[in-house]
Amino acid sequence: MVAERPRDSRHEEIDAILDERDGSVTETRDDADKYTVVGAAHRRTFANWLTPVEEHFVCHRNDIPSIDEEAWTVSLTGQVEGSVSVADLEESYPTVAVAHTMECAGNGRGQHRPETGSVQWEFEAAATALWTGTPVRSILREHGIESPDGRWLTAIGGDPSDGDDIFARSIPLSKALEDCLLAYEMNGDPLPREHGYPVRLIVPGWYGVNSVKWVEELVIMDEMVTEGALDRPGKHASWQQESYRIHPEGVEPDAQATIDEVDTWAQLEGDVSYPYTFDANVMSLIGAPDGESPVPFDRDGITVRGVAWAGDDAVDYVDVSTDGGETWDEAELFGPDYDGAWRLFRYDWDVEPGTHVLFSRATDELGRRQPVSISDPDAWNEVLENDEYPWNEGGYAANAYEPNGVEVTILEGDDE
Question: Is there a domain that residue 305 lies in?
Fold first, then answer.
């Protein structure tokens, strides 16, 4: 497994981000004291479609590299040869903007009982931004790559490790040619340093670990990255074959050269032993009311608002419960509807004074619905049938709805 040694510089990075964003994000507990991690400070972030950069979560393990944009290039290697500069990306290729809901694969790790290690995210590591850049297919086709042919694209980050492991992630070349881009802008502004400046891979609808920051090399390969697969020193496969795999406690998954099924939920259903975290599982969050303070009674009712997403798949519908899961009503989906980005939902609540527990649960177009809770560690094979999400050693890809509920107090009419 990847070594998790404390990194003093993470505190400097976090302090700088917190100071710049002035209360829009908050530091998240990191048991390894290794990652730079901040997440949305308030639930109301999830009542809006577009996430401001100031509220967007940040997560990376290594230090931000020293960057000279004019000298930075992305090398093309493996079954292709060449390179592109940042200026090439901005001036010599088509420019597109993609709406993408990015969720850390560890989002919800802090809801596992007993706790797993590392970053103790609750629900704050998800956000939707507009990413502007160059389609990966435009670059690869100019260099002779026209079809996927079952191959893989491995992206390598330029962030320096304090060990010998290289941050490398592989995705199917079919996905790269379909909708991925090398981004250099975020919400219309230059890419911030902590989000991968000067260039970041964006993999729409997939967990954030696949959207490699500070990209310095793209490798076309017949297989996923495995140990020794790259033409460079160091350990190559940690972030593909060891970390970000879903498995019970005490298991060390075997490296696989290739897999046919990349849908994370389908892998969980048995198509792949110890799934890889690729596309995001169906998920939803209530953003308002946020439960941070009591809400005055309104005889006309209160609108519950939130967001729902499902990776490569579309959200079919969202149910809302205002009585702790006893009864459910369907919410209305509205607002922008883009592949790979979350949908807004709203529900008109005929409210009564008192304290209420609100839940939301989304169902995707394939009929897959958020489970109720996270299982015990000793349960594994049968948990999906029991409406549970499997507790796993890395705490990855959790999407249970009960841990994300919000308690709301509605005041009597004359209460202050």
Answer: yes
Average pLDDT of the residues of the chain: 95
How far apart are the C-alpha atoms of 155 and 291, rounded to whole Å? 41
Residue reference for tokens 């649960």? 361
Going 255 to 258 to 261 to 264, the CA torsion angle's sign is positive
Q: What domain range is 332 assigned to? A: 283-410
Ramachandran assignment for 22, one of left (phi > 0), alpha (psi -120 to 50 degrees), beta (any other): left
What residues have CB less than 8 Å from 106, skipping those under 6 apart?
59, 118, 119, 121, 125, 394, 395, 396
Instruction: Give the confidence band of 214 by pLDDT, cuts at 50, 70, 90.
Output: very high
pTM of the model as a whole: 0.96
Fill in the amino acid letter for 354: G
Beta bridge partners of 219: 77, 154
229 part of a folded domain: no
Q: How many domains does the chain have?
A: 1
Of 161, 169, 154, nearest in space to 239 by CA: 169
Task: Say if 238 falls within a structural domain.
Answer: no
Written as one string, the DSSP assignment of 338-398 is: -TTS-EEEEEEE---SEEEEEEEEEEETTS-B--SEEPPTT--TTTGGGTEEPP-TT--S-
Phi-psi region for residue 205, left (φ > 0), alpha (ψ -120 to 50) or beta?
left
Contact 408, 393 (CB under 8 A): no
Residue in 38, 61, 55 with CA at minimum distance from that of residue 120: 38
Give the dihedral of Cα atoms 164, 183, 210, 238; nearest 10 deg: -10
Domain presence at residue 89: no
User: Residue 206 gets which letter from DSSP?
Assistant: B
Q: What is the pLDDT of residues 306-341, one digit of tens each?
A: 999 999 999 999 999 999 999 999 999 999 999 999
Q: Which single residue is written with the structure tokens 């049938």?
A: 385
Query: Do strands 354-364 and 315-321 pair parallel, antiparallel, or not at all (unpaired)?
Result: antiparallel
SS3 readout for 255-310: CCCCCCCCCHHHHHHHHCCCCECCECCCEEEEEECCCCCCECCCCCCEEEEEEEEC
What CATH number did the domain enclosing 394 receive? 2.60.40.650
CA distances from 167 to 69, 282, 414 (A): 20, 27, 58
